[in-house]
Inverse folding.
């Protein structure tokens, strides 16, 4: 009888630890608690995943529950969703912790890591080289209005960009659009739409970093000093829950406006703006943003952008 009581106490503790971890994270603690609560060795977890058509090694599962690695690739995120069923967890409970950057409930979701941004920057240079394009496209931005759409699944559904530019050399006839999707996105499934005064040229993607690069071709060659307006969109919707949108700037430039629009079926509980001097620097300038009642959107405006990053973050229930 004492043995049965001891077993019940251990099970109760494991269940309580799991409930706490699922509420506040981090992801690896919640995963480890869920596996412990179900009493499954990793080999059995791997076997169950294979029945769902998902292949994940025991070593990867071990790294995930130790916090040594995080699931990011599409196949890994499919595994996490399958784990929620296998471990009898509420739907989206583990995915939510991943999307919130392992932050405790109510705190700011984590953004992209400095390492991921650096890797994406290196890949961008390589993709531009493949297209035979310089990183300086000969254009100076006078104004940029970006509209982000967050869908009913809380995903980054897409974005639309409206640019006002001035050429600073002769012969400019294109613009290089760069889209960096959320972790777990599938760039190959994204679409680029030329909306006004341009047409889509070559497109290159890199799955591991979620980067898409597209040429937008103008119908005219600009001379130094000419101004030009064009508009394009990127259809995404290939990743999981989104928690922020960030725009990086090199040299100081013109006006920038960022608008984030939410589907009425998925509204955040809080929104805020932030800034960073660089990807490695701490965030500053946090300011709460009120969600508009009719259009379910928030926005920020930078009258003149400076080198660094600005963005909008949001929190889900």
């Amino acid at each position: 009888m004492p043995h049965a009581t001891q077993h019940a106490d251990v099970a109760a503790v494991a269940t309580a630890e799991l409930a706490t971890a699922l509420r506040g994270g981090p992801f690896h603690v919640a995963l480890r608690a869920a596996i412990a609560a179900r009493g499954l060795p990793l080999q059995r977890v791997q076997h169950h995943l294979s029945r769902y058509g998902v292949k994940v090694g025991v070593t990867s599962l071990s790294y995930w529950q130790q916090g040594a690695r995080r699931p990011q690739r599409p196949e890994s995120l499919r595994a996490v969703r399958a784990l929620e069923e296998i471990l009898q967890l509420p739907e989206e409970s583990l995915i939510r912790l991943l999307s919130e950057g392992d932050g405790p409930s109510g705190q700011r979701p984590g953004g992209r890591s400095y390492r991921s941004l650096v890797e994406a920057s290196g890949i961008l240079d390589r993709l531009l080289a493949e297209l035979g394009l310089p990183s300086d496209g000969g254009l100076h931005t006078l104004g940029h209005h970006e509209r982000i759409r967050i869908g009913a699944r809380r995903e980054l559904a897409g974005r639309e960009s409206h640019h006002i530019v001035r050429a600073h050399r002769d012969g400019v006839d294109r613009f290089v659009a760069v889209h960096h999707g959320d972790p777990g996105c599938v760039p190959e499934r994204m679409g680029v739409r030329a909306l006004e005064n341009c047409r889509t040229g070559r497109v290159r993607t890199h799955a591991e970093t979620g980067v898409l690069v597209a040429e937008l071709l103008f119908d005219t060659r600009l001379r130094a000093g000419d101004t030009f307006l064009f508009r394009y969109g990127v259809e995404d919707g290939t990743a999981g829950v989104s928690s922020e949108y960030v725009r990086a700037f090199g040299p100081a430039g013109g006006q920038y406006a960022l608008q984030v629009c939410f589907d009425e079926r998925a509204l955040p509980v809080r929104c805020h703006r932030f800034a960073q001097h660089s990807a490695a620097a701490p965030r500053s300038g946090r300011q709460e943003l009120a969600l508009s009642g009719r259009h379910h959107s928030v926005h920020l405006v930078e009258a003149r952008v400076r080198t660094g990053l600005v963005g909008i973050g949001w929190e889900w229930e």
Q: What stands out?
A: The longest helix spans residues 2-24. The chain has two domains: 2-99, 114-315. The chain has seven helices and 13 strands.
